[in-house]
Amino acid sequence: MLCRLFKSMLSPLPLQRSPLDHPIVNRKGKHKDMADVQAKGFTSIVLLLLFVFLCLPINSRGRQLTTTTNPTTFFVSRKIDIVGTQNPSPTINPTASTPPSPVSSPSVPTSTNPTPPPSPVSSPIPSIPTPANPPPPPSPPASLGNTFDVRDYGAKGDGVTDDTKAFQATWAAACNAEASKVVVVPLGFQFLVGPISFSGVNCKPDIVFQLDGTIIAPTSAAAWGSGTLHWLEFTKLRGITIQGQGTIEGRGSVWWGSSTGDDSTSNTENSGRMPHAKPTALRIYGSSNVIATGIMLKNSPQCHLKFDSCNAVEVSNVTVSSPADSPNTDGIHLQDSEDVSIHNTNLACGDDCVSIQTGCSNVRIHDVNCGPGHGISIGGLGKGNTQAVVSDVSVQDVSMVGTLTGVRIKTWQGGSGSVKNVMFSNVNVNGVETPIMIDQFYCDQKKACNNQTAAVALSDITYRNIKGTYTVEPVHLACSDSNPCSNIHLSDIQLMKAGSQTNDPFCWGAFGDLQGTIEPPITCLQHRTSINLNITIDIHL
């Protein structure tokens, strides 16, 4: 309405080029004075400017006119046209991407090009609604709602107080919880814990043991009693994950009979002679869907990490560290377990980096560093005339540095059973005494072993792409007289001596074939399979 009023007021007052050129005459024909002329001319100009600023940016529907052109250019073009004509209308540049006149087309098409913000003079920006508050963060995972911190159950974590009962109480609470649950051993604390068993007999499935702090073993004989074979034990669990950046410190030097290892408090805390039986640091027994990742195990009295009667096991990014002269400190020990994967792991110990015992099948080991230690071994099997069965083992992409052997199979005389379908491939050895070994006369005792004819049968053993340096003997294949090794395949073997006193490859009762580059030559391998036929004919007349 205001714009229409301005327009009606302007209609009877056409713009004059100059009050001097066109004098305004009153009814009596007399000229007005110059002041009246200037006043009316000034009034016309004021009304015109109000019309320009207030009315032209508004279309016929009362909405603000938006434009995709430069707002400053659009405003100047309109101003010039209005001043030069009697009926003002905006002038549109046909080459510019601008919207049509508000008179001819009220609706404004949307430009496909991004538009700069309009000028606050020509096209005021409409008010923008205030955005709603951002959505709240997602709820934490269920495991965080079922977290059981050992400190909440009495653990001190000062490295002196016995926290065994607090760990037992924490486990009992987590074991009975529904859904996912996490037992937390927090970072920055040392927890002194004696022999303990985390039983899963009555537990719900899937427990996470989050180890970020340090668990240390007691060094007093009284804390162990007699006959304790395991320090930390997890038994009969359906889904157990042991993970974190923490450490299990066995302080095993008090058991090894030397000061070797990082155990500065052993002399003051040890109140007597340690028991004869040395415990394994961490044992998982009778469990399925087992994961161990990220943790470190150090200076175990005996074996560091043992899986016994388990299936579906994965070990990754685990570190084992103990001195080369620490006796019987295997890195990872497998027994009666199947579907096992060990990868991206560093193992340094005083015995086998990985030991595979009877009852194991479908075992895959890859991307593992071993050393110091005794290499990766299958066995010893058949001790005490027992039966042993191992099958489907793959060891590949591993590195051995300064170890006793590289990849080894060892059996005792008098045993029975079989080892078959074993592959050792892409093995790099550096300063290893004997990189490739089969020893069916294994005897790990002070007293000499009796000669026996029975033996575990070895067949379908493959060695592929074994390279590096040795210090004693490159290949040692000592198989049973009565039950020779069969189908031994060696391909692309390149082993260079790194010592002054080395031996040639040795073979006994070994049958198989050679392929690819073989260095040094292995001429002792027999290229046929031995077959023994014992036929007894009993004729009754």
Automatic annotation (TrEMBL):
PANTHER family: PTHR31375. Residues 114-141 have a biased composition (Pro residues). One of its GO terms (biological process) is carbohydrate metabolic process. Pfam families: Glyco_hydro_28. Belongs to the glycosyl hydrolase 28 family. This is endo-polygalacturonase. It catalyses: (1,4-alpha-D-galacturonosyl)n+m + H2O = (1,4-alpha-D-galacturonosyl)n + (1,4-alpha-D-galacturonosyl)m. InterPro entries: Glyco_hydro_28, PbH1, Pectin_lyas_fold, Pectin_lyase_fold/virulence. Keywords: Cell wall, Cell wall biogenesis/degradation, Glycosidase, Hydrolase, Repeat, Secreted, Signal. It comes from the Eukaryota. It comes from Canna indica (Indian-shot). It is an enzyme of class 3 (hydrolase). It is found in: Secreted, Cell wall. Residues 104-113, 253-266 have a biased composition (Low complexity). The lineage of its organism: Eukaryota, Viridiplantae, Streptophyta, Embryophyta, Tracheophyta. Its EC number is 3.2.1.15. GO terms for molecular function: polygalacturonase activity. Residues 85-151, 253-276 are annotated as: Disordered.
